[in-house]
Specification:
Length: 372
């Protein structure tokens, strides 16, 4: 439905994690996040910029995203009338990269349109194939293998259907061997976050003995061709994450044989319009997808739930319970996971949860408002 982007407010919030989260990029203890509120006719739609605090996952980081929103993204869309949220990405397509920043605003516009129409966000994006989302968890690098084993046991006992562990050189083969010894039958995957090179082929080939669901993004963020060479050498399926920013990238990776699975992150690809396009390319090629996470607040988590209702999201994603990350979330009710490892998909308008405005105000450290 047609609407005008009448006003925008940016909310910079900061929340400590319940437990540190470590990848090959480093260790995170708290999150600095930008929420984008887009208004039309007294109704607000909400999005989340999923960039990290530092430009290690990709080129984006929170402070840079704040500047880009203020100086480029907001001025490009403020006051514009669009026929649908699907048109919003085109208003910023002249900007190179920075898809998480642009996608935070784009996602807010989808939420706004859904609320104006009085329908769930999942319905607006064409989802609804899944009324429950199958959930996995992502477990960061720990201080010791026993600590990792204990965390995995806790998540398996909680019902999560798939366990993802972070790996890096020096924390990989023997760690996974220990995990498999304790948990021989769980769905297990390893995420390398670009920590390896083609010089590590023989080393990574050792992973084939562990019956992993997949190894995620072992090589550099822009190495589709090298991933094709690595995949030919491995029995373990490769899943691409950082490499896939557009449907075109997905098509290239699939045609080259660089992966057998693709992780779709809403922010990484720039919002719902491109996420749907990546999903459709993968569907046509018979490549399964799942929804990755970026330590989002409840808003980003709710968006991930909506995205995961598209039909080709057939593998458990990283969408897990609010309490795994936050002592208190900014939405009500919190995202909860059932004992069988699923999240129920609601029918409320927009992303389907209420905002805890008092708590949101208490964790907001900066704000900017813009009117057409």
């Amino acid at each position: 439905m047609e609407f005008q982007i009448e006003a925008i407010r940016l909310h910079w919030i900061e929340m400590p994690l319940v437990h540190f989260f470590e990848t090959s990029f480093g260790r995170t203890y708290s999150r600095k996040m930008i929420l984008v509120e887009v208004r039309c006719g007294g109704t607000s739609g909400w999005g989340e910029v999923t960039a990290g605090e530092h430009p290690y996952y990709n080129e984006e980081w929170t402070e840079g995203a704040w500047a880009l929103l203020n100086e480029y993204v907001v001025p490009s869309v403020l006051g514009k009338r669009v026929g649908a949220a699907a048109e919003v990405a085109g208003l910023t397509e002249g900007m190179k990269g920075h898809r998480m920043t642009r996608g935070g605003l784009e996602a807010a516009c989808w939420d706004l349109e859904a609320r104006l129409a009085g329908v769930p966000l999942w319905q607006l994006i064409g989802g609804g194939a899944h009324k429950e989302i199958a959930c996995g968890v992502s477990i960061g690098i720990q201080d010791s293998v026993p600590q990792l084993i204990e965390k995995i046991r806790r998540e398996v006992d909680a019902g999560y259907q798939r366990i993802k562990i972070k790996i890096k050189p020096g924390w990989d083969i023997e760690v996974i061997r220990a995990v498999r010894r304790e948990f021989p039958s769980i769905l297990l995957m390893a995420d390398a976050n670009s920590a390896y090179t083609l010089n590590d082929i023989e080393h990574l080939r050792q992973l084939d003995e562990f019956n992993l669901m997949m190894m995620e993004q072992p090589l550099a963020h822009d190495e589709i061709i090298d991933h094709a060479q690595l995949q030919r050498a491995l029995a373990t399926p490769i899943c691409l994450d950082e490499c896939i920013r557009t449907a075109h990238h997905a098509r290239q990776a699939i045609e080259l044989g660089a992966c057998r699975i693709i992780n779709i992150k809403l922010g990484r690809v720039g919002g719902f319009a491109e996420a749907k396009a990546v999903h459709d390319v993968c569907t046509a090629a018979g490549i399964p997808v799942w929804c990755g996470g970026m330590l989002e607040s409840g808003i980003g988590r709710a968006h991930n739930i909506a995205l995961s209702t598209l039909p080709n999201f057939i593998l458990p994603g990283d969408v897990s319970a609010s309490r795994r990350y936050w002592k208190r979330d900014i939405i009500e009710p919190w995202v909860e996971v059932s004992p069988r490892g699923t999240i129920a998909v609601g029918d409320g308008p927009g992303f389907g949860y209420n905002l805890d405005h008092d708590f949101l105000k208490s964790v907001t450290v900066r704000g900017e408002s813009f009117s057409a």
